[in-house]
C-alpha cells in the first residue's frame, strides 16, 4: 500500500507539472507581454488619461457655477463717525455703529469665459497630447515586441547548445567506455583513459554551465513578458527557420514611431509657444450672481422680522475685460525660450531620421552577412561531423590516435556552436530589419 501511495503521488506531480508547461511561440510570447507587462499597461493608461486632460481643458470654456454661503458674528460693531446734521445736531460729530451683530448670506454665482485665447490653444494642445500618448503607446508596444523577440531567440540558442552538448556527451561517453575496455585488455595506455575522463568531465561542466544559462535566460524572458517565473515553457523548433528576407528600397522613416513621436513633440512645442503668445491677447468674461442676506441682533437662520432679523436679496451682472499692457518683458523671454526648445527638437528630428536610415542599412548588411555565415557554418558542421565519424571508425580499428579523435570532437562541437551562433545573429538582425521598416507588429498579425 505504501509503494502504491508513493507511485500515485509521483504520478499526480508529473501530471501537474505537465499541465503547467506552456508551449510558447513568438507570437504567443509577444501577445502575453502586451497584455501583462507593466510598460504596455502604463502606456495604455496614459492614453486613457489624455481623455481626462482634454475634459479638464474643455471645462475652462464652460460656465463655472458655484453656491456660496457664510455666516458672520460681530461681537463688537465698528463705530463710524457721522456728521451730526443727520441727527439734528449741526456742527457735531456722532459715533454710531453700522451693521448688525449677525449677518448671513447665501447665493449662487456664475462665470463664463467669452474670449480667452489660451483656452482655445489649450484645447488644441490637449488633443495633440492625446495623439502623442497614442503614438507613445505604439512605440512602447514596439519596444516590448523587440525585447521579447530578442530574448526569445536567445533562449532558443542556449537550448540548442544544450542539446548539442548532451549529444556530444553521449558520444564522448561511448568513446570513453571503448578506451576503458581497451585499457582493461591492455590495448590502451592509462594516460589515454585519463585524457578521456578529463574530456568527459569538461563536457559535463560545460553542460551544467549551459543549463544554468538556459534557466537564467528563460527567467529573463518570463520577466520581459510578465509571466510567473515558475511557469515551464516549451519553444517549438519551427520558430527558428531561417528564411532569407526580401529587401526593398529604404523604408520611409517618416512612418516610424520614433519619428512620429518627435514630430508630435514638435507640434506640442508649437502650441506651447502659441499659449505663451496668447497671454498678449485680452480676455473677456461674463459674471453674474444672486444672493440672499439676513441681518439682525441674533442668528438669522429661521428668524423672522418679529425677532429683529430682516432678509433681502440682491444680484449683479458684470462684463469683465482684461487687457495686458506691460509684463516687464517676462512674456517675451518665455516666447524666446519656447522658440529655442522648438529649434532643438527640430535638430533631434533631423538626427533621428538619419539614425533610422542607418538602422535599416546596418540591419540589411548584417542579414546578408549572416546568411553567408550560416551557409558556411552549415557546410563546416557537415564536414566536421563526417570527419568525426571517420576518425571514430579509424580509432576503433587502431588507425587513428586519441589526439586525432579529441581534436575532431572539439572541431565538431565548435562547428555546431558557430552555426547556432550564426542563426542567432541572423534572427537578431531580422528583428532589427523588421523594426527599421516599422513592421514589428507583423510578428503578431501574421
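^ Assign residues to that structure.
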Amino acid at each position: 500500500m505504501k509503494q502504491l501511495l508513493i507511485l500515485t503521488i509521483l504520478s499526480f506531480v508529473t501530471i501537474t507539472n505537465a499541465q503547467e508547461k506552456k508551449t510558447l511561440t513568438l507570437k504567443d510570447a509577444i501577445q502575453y507581454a502586451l497584455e501583462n507587462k507593466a510598460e504596455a499597461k502604463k502606456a495604455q493608461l496614459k492614453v486613457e488619461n489624455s481623455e481626462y486632460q482634454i475634459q479638464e481643458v474643455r471645462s475652462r470654456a464652460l460656465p463655472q457655477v458655484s453656491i456660496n454661503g457664510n455666516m458672520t458674528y460681530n461681537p463688537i460693531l465698528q463705530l463710524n463717525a457721522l456728521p451730526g446734521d443727520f441727527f439734528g445736531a449741526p456742527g457735531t460729530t456722532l459715533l454710531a455703529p453700522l451693521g448688525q451683530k449677525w449677518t448671513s448670506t447665501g447665493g449662487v454665482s456664475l462665470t463664463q469665459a467669452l474670449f480667452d485665447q489660451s483656452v482655445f490653444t489649450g484645447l488644441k494642445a490637449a488633443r495633440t497630447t492625446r495623439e502623442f500618448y497614442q503614438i507613445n503607446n505604439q512605440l512602447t508596444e514596439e519596444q516590448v515586441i523587440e525585447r521579447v523577440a530578442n530574448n526569445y531567440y536567445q533562449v532558443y540558442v542556449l537550448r540548442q547548445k544544450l542539446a548539442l552538448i548532451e549529444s556530444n556527451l553521449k558520444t564522448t561517453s561511448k568513446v570513453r567506455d571503448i578506451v576503458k575496455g581497451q585499457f582493461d585488455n591492455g590495448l590502451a595506455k592509462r594516460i589515454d583513459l585519463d585524457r578521456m575522463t578529463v574530456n568527459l568531465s569538461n563536457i559535463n561542466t560545460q553542460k551544467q554551465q549551459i543549463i544554468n544559462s538556459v534557466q537564467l535566460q528563460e527567467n529573463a524572458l518570463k520577466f520581459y513578458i510578465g509571466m510567473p517565473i515558475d511557469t515551464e515553457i516549451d519553444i517549438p523548433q519551427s520558430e527558428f527557420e531561417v528564411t532569407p528576407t526580401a529587401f526593398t528600397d529604404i523604408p520611409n522613416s517618416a512612418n516610424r514611431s520614433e519619428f512620429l513621436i518627435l514630430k508630435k513633440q514638435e507640434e506640442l512645442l508649437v502650441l506651447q509657444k502659441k499659449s505663451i503668445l496668447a497671454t498678449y491677447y485680452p480676455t473677456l468674461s461674463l459674471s453674474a450672481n444672486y444672493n440672499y442676506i439676513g441681518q439682525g441682533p441674533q442668528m438669522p437662520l429661521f428668524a423672522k422680522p418679529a425677532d429683529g432679523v430682516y432678509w433681502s436679496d440682491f444680484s449683479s451682472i458684470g462684463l469683465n475685460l482684461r487687457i495686458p499692457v506691460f509684463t516687464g518683458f517676462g512674456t517675451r523671454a518665455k516666447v524666446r525660450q519656447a522658440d529655442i526648445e522648438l529649434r532643438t527638437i527640430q535638430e533631434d528630428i533631423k538626427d533621428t531620421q538619419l539614425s533610422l536610415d542607418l538602422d535599416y542599412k546596418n540591419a540589411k548588411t548584417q542579414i546578408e552577412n549572416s546568411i553567408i555565415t550560416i551557409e558556411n557554418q552549415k557546410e563546416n558542421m557537415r564536414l566536421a561531423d563526417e570527419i568525426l565519424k571517420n576518425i571514430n571508425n579509424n580509432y576503433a580499428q587502431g588507425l587513428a590516435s586519441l589526439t586525432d579523435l579529441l581534436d575532431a570532437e572539439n572541431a565538431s562541437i565548435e562547428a555546431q556552436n558557430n552555426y547556432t551562433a550564426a542563426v542567432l545573429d541572423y534572427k537578431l538582425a531580422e528583428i532589427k530589419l523588421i523594426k527599421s521598416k516599422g513592421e514589428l507588429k507583423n510578428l503578431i498579425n501574421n
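The mean pLDDT is 86.
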